[in-house]
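Sharing in case it's useful to others searching the archive later.

Someone asked me privately for the predicted structure of Ephexin-1, so I'm posting the question and my answer publicly. Question first, with the sequence:
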Amino acid sequence: MELLAAAFSAACAVDHDSSTSESDARDSASGHLPGSESSSTPGNGATPEECPALADSPTTLTEALQMIHPIPADSWRNLIEQIGLLYQEYRDKSTLQEIETRRQQDAEIHTSASGSPASEEAPEEEEDEEEEDEPASPPERKALPQICLLSNPHSRFNLWQDLPEIQSSGVLEILQPEEIKLQEAMFELVTSEASYYKSLSLLVSHFMENERLKKILHPSEAHILFSNVLDVMAVSERFLLELERRMEENIVISDVCDIVYHYAANHFSVYITYVSNQTYQERTYKQLLQEKAAFRELIAQLELDPKCRGLPLSSFLILPFQRITRLKLLVQNILKRVEERSERECTALDAHKELEMVVKACNEGVRKMSRTEQMISIQKKMEFKIKSVPIISHSRWLLKQGELQQMSGPKTSRTLRTKKLFREIYLFLFNDLLVICRQIPGDKYQVFDSAPRGLLRVEELEDQGQTLANVFILRLLENADDREATYMLKASSQSEMKRWMTSLAPNRRTKFVSFTSRLLDCPQVQCVHPYVAQQPDELTLELADILNILEKTEDGWIFGERLHDQERGWFPSSMTEEILNPKIRSQNLKECFRVHKMDDPQRSQNKDRRKLGSRNRQ
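And my answer, the predicted structure tokens:
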């Protein structure tokens, strides 16, 4: 949060006039989806400034609600039933639209800023922009092959303002553009829940309840494979019904975050149960595919059914985890659009905080299952040459492991050319402990030193030729013998060296962030290709994720911090593209700070009263 606060201060220093150009660029884009982190949906109505006749029209939400009639229940239910996209398709379409929206904003505003004949910004800022514009052509954007989904005429994906009831009501000429964007964000949360429920229903009816599959699977295998998906679907159904009732009250949606808050606080624990089973679910699914030919053949046959749209069973099994994560992002998008210091902002903040707790519990559930097995396996492989250190602990987990080369002899020696200058050692780095080993026959590791992680210091050597390339110094302020020890270590590449240094000493100063002064000057990227982490120090990326770059290597790796949850890790730069315009980056930081700002005492008291009232009613 300290880093976010510094980011917010830096972002606020950007020229205030940029907000007008950003809004113009957003409103000029057509067909953008609601709910994207930096997208905006254009309104069809003019503002009072543009049309004086509208100046006396009611512009507040309360006044608009008094003028508009409820949407017919049958009309709304027909819309829900006609949603033709499975949730996997809906989600892909939404995130791809977010990417395209940011690209257009980045390109349009960047071009506008560089092409304007006169600028009101300070001369120093002009020079900075000129330096950015020096390249003859901007970096080439990689085409996304999935983008055809956005223009598929056969897929129903409506905007709130495109509904016939909205078009004929005249409400678009009453509401301000910002309120229309908020309506779109809330509308996407509802329609995406309908698409999600449709996909869950298909998982149950088409796969889980298939009679042939029931005969192939042992009850214990079926229980692990499908877990408590029936409970998850039941909660989704009740949640969707409440959202539908809210939509039926009025075509102008009053709020949805109060419903989200209630379900997150009282009913979404079913997601924690389901997601915590993910490790065993994946393992069982792989074993069944490998060991049971009948299972493999039947699943392949079921996946070919047109109902599945070419999607595999695995994409249906992971739906609950994807949904609870996406739901938090959808609430974030609503939060960014509600008026500040309003009741709707308080409700959105409450809903977001409850969802964060659910998502965190889901992540912890998955990690706990896999970490316990991993720690037991590591403990069995270790033989201690020094005093034994207990490895297994409920509060300990592996951050990074791997082989490095330790330099033997003084670094200035020129007489060691006939000898082996480096010898292999193996490091296990846990969240609170470093263990240094040598690999021995039998897939075992002999431990010869250790130190608490908090007593580690690292230092990169300046370039001293090929022999000492990618070499860094590791200092143990207090090792297993209660004395200071120094190791000169060589990595296989620059990125591997940087990754080890970042993991060993996470609070050291990086290229873009000084952790001591809290000064921030971070480039940003957005994810354009999903990436699944392969190592504990890597970060899994979803399409449209926005990340601050904290460190970057010449061989194509980035150490970044995702804005929406502050998770950090390494990922290939080829999975992302840079956000070039500083004003867009500034806006992203402002939105991030608003979402994650600390609760004020009064809001916390109000939340406690609402919780107490909810429990009393139960």
